[in-house]
From TrEMBL:
InterPro entries: LRR_dom_sf. This is Uncharacterized protein. It comes from Mycena alexandri.
């Protein structure tokens, strides 16, 4: 058989093909219909050439590049994920995990951000591929009527990097041991005290925020646990008691690069003057007054944009060390950016 240029078209395997360019267009065959006239057997080799329709429908870009494009688009414009998933099965397999990137037990307040409700994720565990749930990176657990759902979710999501945990989880501690990527953790002090000294969480968390503290004795116990966290570089507290307990051993915590006291901006005058000198003289310390204290909104903004009070504190401390800010300044408002000039 001759091509338009007068030459045979031959595959390396020995099969002769019809011309790839035909003088009159023909409709593409169905992928489910075998068209034997699309290839001719060689007397020696009998392996068929790939159907022409495959060549038309295969992606034109390298798969790794195509995947990167879709994943970047989904991450930048998460509201488009459901529509992007309809393009092709391979695209669906790439970006469906991003539908579960942020999961919350609190009802989502923004339709523009794909925050998966905890109940939906719990339901989907039974009939979706386990690899989908490796896409869960940020988990916000404030309330949960059924603690068994919490256990199931924690067990199914080993790739979590950012966890806000306010619900009781004493029975879930083993699940947290299977999260090697966990870096940012927000918990209550009594939850931290429930971990055994050899729990893997102590070897992975770098950013820790502790919520309420009840007694000075509890504060001392927390300090003992903090000493077991060699990778901890950032510590945020909502109460000054733990810092009081830390003062005698501040030098031993040389791995800490940032120590934050989170409070309400309305309490600035009341609290700032009460901070003991060893802290105010430590260039790692910063008091941050929050104008709108909302744990969920803080978590949502952090998960979606990366804008966190950690980043603000790091930038402020770096500027102060560089001499751009008076070294005696150790308190700021979370909405104040004048110091960046």
């Amino acid at each position: 058989m001759m091509s338009l240029s007068g030459q045979f078209l031959k595959e390396p395997g020995g099969a002769f093909l019809l011309p790839t360019h035909h003088p009159t267009p023909h409709p593409l065959p169905s992928p489910h219909h075998r068209v034997d006239t699309m290839w001719m057997k060689n007397p020696v080799h009998c392996s068929p050439a790939p159907p022409i329709w495959n060549r038309h429908f295969e992606p034109r870009l390298p798969l790794d590049l195509e995947r990167s494009i879709f994943e970047t688009t989904a991450l930048s414009h998460p509201s488009t994920i459901p529509n992007l998933m309809l393009i092709a099965w391979r695209v669906k397999s790439w970006i469906e995990p991003q539908l579960y990137r942020m999961v919350s037990s609190t009802h989502p307040r923004s339709a523009q951000l794909p925050v998966a409700p905890l109940d939906i994720l719990s339901r989907d565990l039974a009939h979706k591929c386990p690899s989908v749930f490796r896409g869960v990176k940020h988990l916000f657990l404030y309330t949960a009527k059924d603690t068994s759902k919490v256990d199931a979710v924690l067990a199914a999501c080993p790739s979590i990097t950012d966890l806000f945990l306010y619900v009781p989880i004493r029975g879930s501690l083993p699940m947290l041991a299977s999260m090697p990527s966990l870096r940012r953790l927000v918990i209550q002090p009594r939850t931290l005290l429930a971990f055994d000294p050899d729990h893997p969480i102590f070897c992975s968390v770098t950013h820790l925020e502790l919520l309420e503290i009840s007694t000075s004795a509890e504060a001392e116990d927390v300090c003992t646990k903090l000493a077991m966290m060699p990778k901890l570089t950032h510590l945020a507290l909502n109460s000054i008691e733990i810092y009081h307990a830390l003062i005698p051993s501040l030098e031993a915590f040389d791995h800490l690069r940032c120590m934050i006291m989170l409070s309400s901006e309305e309490r600035r005058e009341m609290e700032v003057d009460e901070i003991p000198a060893p802290l105010t003289e430590d260039d790692r310390f910063l008091w941050i007054g929050q104008t709108h204290a909302d744990s969920y909104e803080d978590w949502l903004r952090s998960a979606h944009t990366g804008e966190t009070y950690w980043a603000v504190a790091d930038a402020f401390i770096a500027a102060r060390r560089a001499g751009k800010i008076d070294r005696s300044c150790y308190s700021i408002c979370d909405e104040d950016r004048s110091w960046r000039i």
